[in-house]
Amino acid sequence: MAKKTVLVIFTGGTIGSDCEGKSISLSGASKKALIEKYREYAGDGVDFEILTPINILSENVQPADLKKLYDCVKEADISRCEGVIITHGTDTLCFTVNWFSQVFCSFPKPIVFVSALYPLSDRRSNGLKNFAGAVDFITQAKLGGVYCAFANDGENCKIHLGSRLVYPDEINGFYHSALGAHFAEIADGKVIYNSSPLLPAVNAVKENAATPCESALCDKIMLITMRSLLNFSVYDFDNVKPKAVIIELSHSGTVCTEGEALNFKLFANYCKACGVPVVLAPVMSRAGVYASMNEIPENVSIAYDLTIEMTIVKIMSALGAGLSADAYLNREIAFEKIPFPVV
Prior knowledge:
By secondary structure, the chain is of the alpha/beta class. The chain has seven helices and 16 strands. An eight-stranded mixed sheet has the order 4-1-5-6-7-8-11-12, with helices on both faces. The protein has a four-stranded parallel sheet with strand order 13-14-15-16. A two-stranded antiparallel sheet has the order 2-3. Helix 1 crosses helix 4 (127-140) and helix 3 (93-103) packs across helix 7 (308-320). The radius of gyration is 21 Å and the shape is elongated. The mean pLDDT is 91.
């Protein structure tokens, strides 16, 4: 029986780094180390083709780097491959995965991102487990689209829909899907799909034929995260004016709307006078609305049923394509709309 082949695209990150003392830096030997560790763990039943379009720590990613990664996947010959693994740093993994879910929604084979919380040489690293989980998923699942394989401490490797991956937990860096509903997990080398009603059916994912969004990204946006006593009056667009402002709301979908300096409505009116669109997220369309959120100014859009990371991706993509900031918010491309949980 012919071996299966997986294309591995290395981009750097912690999974591509080594540790000297307390300093973590990129290592040229990491690609070989990861493949060797996998062969020691699972044997040589899979062949790997390797590309390295960039080699960076993910916190340093620039628009040009993402363009190189996009072009690398777009131009790769995948005719002999079962799928694609992309190694990536954990710090900005969530953005790249969500973005790829939109631009490669109709990719005919699985693209699976893997990363590591510690370098491979560190016994605490989950890099090998994530990589092995990605290989298992690719060689067993006959699905296209974008995914992330990630094992939190003490758990099986979870497979997340790229469009549902949310920002990691503070401090420990654990990754989850929106509402905790991962798409599948790897148990003893087998893919076990999650039957949660919060998820699309496997056949629906297999048959997804949505049109991808444009690949260009506009980085001239401002993200403001709601916290107590957040003073909106300190934002001044006289020198630099963003193309859009995204307000990451409190968990119940609220923001301060009383007083002067802390009043979001006054800030929204300032944005309107400056010609800057404002988008609020996340907001569940079927959830109750607090009185403080009534009478929102007309220049404000709401990103219903989307994670904040997906909202950022959609707005940057829309502006990059020369469209209005809210152009993609109501267009579902890769199952990114989060259903409100039924109690």
